[in-house]
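Rotation project, supervised by the postdoc (A.L.). Task for the rotation student: set up a whole-complex structure prediction and record inputs and outputs verbatim in this book. Inputs entered:
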Amino acid sequence: MDIQLKRGLLDVCVLAAIKNEESYGYKIIKDMKPYMEMSESTLYTILKRLETSGLLEVHSAEHNGRLRKYYRITDAGSKRIDEFRDDWKEIMAIYRFVTREDQIND
Amino acid sequence: MDIQLKRGLLDVCVLAAIKNEESYGYKIIKDMKPYMEMSESTLYTILKRLETSGLLEVHSAEHNGRLRKYYRITDAGSKRIDEFRDDWKEIMAIYRFVTREDQIND
DNA sequence: TGATATACATCGTATCACGAAGTATTCTGT
DNA sequence: ACAGAATACTTCGTGATACGATGTATATCA
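Outputs recorded:
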């Protein structure tokens, strides 16, 4: 997929990956893989950004003797997903504008 | 609309604005306005980029005593729109992933 | 024992939208 | 005739950001 297009979907995709139950970095990448692939460096950058802006919360917990960082969506994060749903109407209009068939002019 | 999301649609939107008939900067902005607003600096940056990468062609022509730059889509530009159409299937899958209703787990 | 998977982190780079500011002409209202 | 809006294009600086490269550390498995 076009990189620029991906950019607009990444944040909301990560939020969607944790919206039903908390998750952690490595698992998020695997869960998202069928929909969108991303490198680890990209994901951890995004997770940090989403945390800083209050769209998700982090807590560390032990797993197999190691600390693992679990991410949970916040109310603001859920609101972000709702905003995406709202944006979708505009996006569909753009899609139709871009892919409309040429008019027969004469 | 979310800025990042906009980024992914801008190039293809500009191409769509000239795909039926050649156009020029100021007109492109007005034609796109119902779908997406953009500043002049943004548009002219995009036009230059699309020209450099061969997705559109430019020629200057006189209009009311002034030179105006007309942009025309190339075959590569049309192909770019086709690619967007292809990307759409993935985008729809992502949309469903993001907006799917929470499963009832217990 | 060596490779692979898990798990997270940091740094540098290239791309890019946009505001601000500039230049220059034409049109419109008073 | 004059001011201001509209038309038309350009350049510069900035902040945001995806990603490759690289590093650290442990667990699993052949």
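Student's summary: The longest strand of chain A covers residues 56-63.
Supervisor addendum: Chain A has a mean pLDDT of 91.
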